[in-house]
Amino acid sequence: MKESSRIQRLDEVLRSSKLVAAGFMGVDNRSVNEVVEDDAAQMSKLGVTAQQIASRMHRITDLAKKGLGTWVEIDQSRRAMAEEAKGSIVCPWPHPGRFDKRVTTVRLSGSDRSIRWSDLNIHLIAEHGFFEGRGSPFRLDPKQLVEIIF
Given a cut of 80, is residue 25 above it in pLDDT? Predict the structure, then answer.
């Protein structure tokens, strides 16, 4: 019973706009557990783990930061740019975690395909397997993310 009340509280926090303007769940009516489970199933089909995805995102962000807001070649197929804003954002899960307000954009060369994420997204994926809910401004579809960053 205690666990379900914790999950309920987390679900409320993720749906509120106290931490992020549109909330972390967007228009998604599924529970946070359903979102995480559905994305885990998709990753399993893709043959990758949340940690592998987050590690690649982190590596790309580190390379992009060196460009100081300009495009940086990641490899023959990708370029990335990291843009920073003042301040930080906290993880909505009940543990300490504060992350720079930085957005990394990755674009496939010779294509208009791109994807973007925040430093908090990297943490949410690595530690919680959470890619955010449908309709959230920073929702990352695991399939699209894998296609663009690997």
Answer: yes
Q: Which of 11, 8, 5 is nearest to 130 (CA)?
A: 11
* pLDDT tens by residue, 100-113: 999 999 999 999 99
What's the domain range around 10?
Answer: 2-149
| Proportion of the chain in helix, strand, coil states, percent, rounded to 5 | 40, 20, 35
pLDDT in tens, 5-23: 888 889 888 988 666 767 8
- Contacts of 28-37 with CB under 8 Å at 24 or more apart are 28/133, 28/134, 28/135, 28/136, 30/133, 31/7, 32/7, 32/130, 32/133, 33/7, 35/130, 35/131, 35/132, 35/133, 36/128, 36/129, 36/130
Mutual orientation of helices 50-65 and 119-128 as an angle, nearest 10°? 160
Counted domains in the chain:
1
Strand intervals (E) in 1-150: 72-73, 78-90, 98-108, 114-118
pLDDT of residue 19: 64
| pLDDT mean over 82-110 | 94
